[in-house]
Amino acid sequence: MHEQFKKAIPILKKVEEAGYEAFFVGGSIRDYLLDRPIADVDIATSATPVEIKSIFPKTIDVGIEHGTIMIQENGETYEVTTFRSESDYQDFRHPGEVRFIRSLEEDLRRRDFTMNAIAMNRFGEIQDPFNGQADLEKRRIQTVGPADERFNEDALRMMRAVRFVSQLGFILDPQTEAALCKNAWLLKNISIERITAEFQKLLKGPHKKQAYEILAKTGLSTMLPGMEEGKTALETCTAYQMDLLNENQLWLLLLFEMNPKDPMDFLKKWKLPSKKIKYLSSLARGLKLRMKKEWTIPALFEVKREAAMDIEAVYAILQKKSPEELLPSIEKLFNQMVIKDKSEITVTGTDLMDWYNKPAGPWIKKALHEIQRSILLKKVKNDKGAIKEWLQTCSQPPESDY
Ligand code: ATP
Ligand code: MG
Question: Is 160 labelled a binding residue?
Fold first, then answer.
């Protein structure tokens, strides 16, 4: 058995000694059977939250109304969730009522996909009433029970299905896929935050190309924020070497293909963190410029290294080249820069006011910008005296609109 399960065995044992059942469940079992790295070990039990609290001295209520208690044991924390059944999904989102039950099989029945509905006891024995192992073997994603019904209960499961395609490279069972097409519109009931969270996981998966194809094919893509008309853009993305891009770069590729009037507005629809929105929209601007012309040192200086690399990586795959081919020359330009940051410029606005005997105003910013450009282009040395002398050759303060 895997080390992470072994460490948690004392918890299962304690629960059993108190007269209840306890199993490892969910993603950790799936990943263990697939021989993939395990994220967190989740535990399911027949004991109610109150009963769990009476067994363990150190617990934290994280979602007690859903039956989840956090237990701290040997410096690790574990989520222990009471077996439950969910019924009456009135709003396609939250179960109308959570019922605590004593049957493992019923608990597994409410889980999304057969591969996620496998349990293991502390002796390593598997309970698999919905044949999840057979699906793992066939590398197939299939809902527990009728797909139509399961997606109607909770439409987020559709995004989860596609995200698992990206993470695992599995195929969709035909009925599950047909139900995606039929029920895609139900995604309107799911909060953007939850959709975005699944999409971000999708972007990090190694099989994102297949995932994009399914999003487009099933019509799920039209339900994504700002993507009502985005099917073709998504399909175009799959024609490129998406595998060579990281998450930010994939967002940039999507932005480029979507070409929204205002990238900031598009990203806001996804409710991404504002820092990320700002960064990605600056990349979108930069990529548009890059499509028109080669980098110059002053342009790279403004854009900064990380952003320039992200832009160039996407530019490369748009040109059907590999980022590896293009990035070294950018790196070289960065290494050639005589200054790395604005703060290194030896002249300040106060110096300029002094030398020109002029009050502060927008001219200072423009002049400093031109000085920065000239330093970067090695027209003048970054030395106060040299800059003062160079300025004297100009009849008035230099201006830069760059
Ligand atoms: P990950 O490795 O990304 O954590 P996971 O399968 O563990 O994948 P979680 O969101 O951690 O996903 O959920 C844990 C388990 O809870 C799942 O394996 C599944 O059995 C069940 N589950 C989660 N979300 C749903 C849902 N929307 N509907 C039904 N069952 C769900
Ligand atoms: Mg998990």
Answer: yes
Cα–chain-centroid distance for residue 323? 21
Q: What would the CATH number be for the domain defined by 342-392?
A: 1.10.246.80
CA distance 11 to 45: 11
Q: What percent of the chain has pLDDT over 90?
A: 86
Angle between helices 384-392 and 349-356 (to 10 degrees): 40
Matching CATH number, 139-239, of 1.20.950.20, 1.10.110.30, 2.30.30.60, 3.40.1380.10: 1.10.110.30
The CA 67 to ligand 2 mean position distance, Å, reads 16
pLDDT single digits (tens) 301-314: 999 999 999 999 99
pLDDT tens, position by position, 258-269 = 999 999 999 999
* Chain length of the chain: 402
What is the chain's mean pLDDT, rounded? Answer: 93
Ligand 1 lined by 114 (C-beta under 6 Å):
no
Task: Please indicate whether the domains covering 1-133 and 342-392 agree at the CATH topology level.
Answer: no
Instruction: Name the CATH architecture for the domain at 1-133.
Output: 2-Layer Sandwich (3.30)
Q: CATH topology for 240-337?
A: Methane Monooxygenase Hydroxylase; Chain G, domain 1 (1.20.58)
| pLDDT tens-digit series, residues 77-98 | 999 999 998 765 555 555 556 7
Q: Relative to the CA of 154, which ligand 1 atom is closest? A: 27
CB distance 112 to ligand 1 below 6 Å: yes
Q: Which of 37, 14, 24 is nearest to 78 (CA)?
A: 24
Reported ipTM: 0.98
The tally of CA atoms less than 13 A away on the side-chain side of residue 129 is: 12
